[in-house]
TrEMBL record:
Gene3D superfamilies: 3.30.420.40
Keyword Membrane: no
Family label: Belongs to the anhydro-N-acetylmuramic acid kinase family.
Any GO BP annotation: peptidoglycan turnover
Name listed for the protein in its UniProt record: Anhydro-N-acetylmuramic acid kinase
Organism of derivation: Pleionea mediterranea
Amino acid sequence: MSEYYLGLISGTSADGIDAILVELAEHSVVTLAAETFAYPDDVRQEILSISQPAADHGEQRIDRLGHLDHQVGSLFADAAKTLCAKANVDISKVSAIGSHGQTVRHRPQGSHHFTLQIGDANVIAFETGVTTVSDFRRMDIAAGGQGAPLVPLFHQWLLGESDKNRAILNLGGIANLSWLPKHKGQVIGFDTGPANALCDYWIQQQLAKNYDKQGEWAKSGTVSEELLKHMMADPYFLMSAPKSTGREYFDAKWLEQKLKGADPIAAEDTQATLVELTARTVTDHIQRLPAQCDELLVCGGGYHNDFLMARIAQHLPNQTKIQPLNALGVDSDFIEAATFAWLAKQRCERQPQNYTSITGASRPVIMGALYQA
């Protein structure tokens, strides 16, 4: 028997809400509708501001966070209702909404590690009339895990068993890898480092553009080997899995510190070097996987950056086949939103949703809080 589920997420780039309506059965998923709903400019700027770990962001920061939590929840609810209307599906027929929310802080290290997502699920459930599952990451953190990544489980369920060693690369604000070895080997997953986040920040600062379309600006520059070496010396890149990170680590301050440690270069050369950083750190991590990667399936906004994809291909062995994840019938731009639709179903069925080999948690746990409509 199939059921309707709706997945909602806004990634580290905070450019909008990815929403997907799917029909889930035991071993299949059918996409009924998918759309990205851009944040209003003032909301996006407030998210980016409050996400920065710098000491001073003005007075009444807790008040600002509370207002934003409610506002983002309402925007998520609007996205859910609009998507169902466009798909001609009565929202009351949706079994549950899985809402990841908007991450504003992810601190998986230390004695009291934590993660924080906003987008009040009470608001989503009330405004849509649909039971909502949210707060997926913190039970894993309570069990000693990283709280991330969560998508490898969905990747495994979606793609099933294979006679190939496959990796799935998600190029969002942060890059993450899922390793799906052949013949039901142990699945692992982790964040490799920055992907779009730093490139988007730099072009916004220098050219007042939201992103570098197809990597054309980066392609016009020259990689600074000095700056690249300085960046790649960061301890995060040498850490073993399980590990996860976010924009609170790889942020503007991180980039400015690296720039100060190298000779001055042209702005486009910095962009080229940031692309090369992503390509090198991604492929370095792929080459450290337990076995040769036969097939690399790519999803996320970074897949549309032709220059980045060319640099990744340059650093991988010729025998590794690279293709978009949607070559297997999945829209690569909405794979994370689909993940949280599926995770909502798992939560409603009380199924554990974490792999200790991925997050480092002490045991499998049921993740996500239920908010009844």
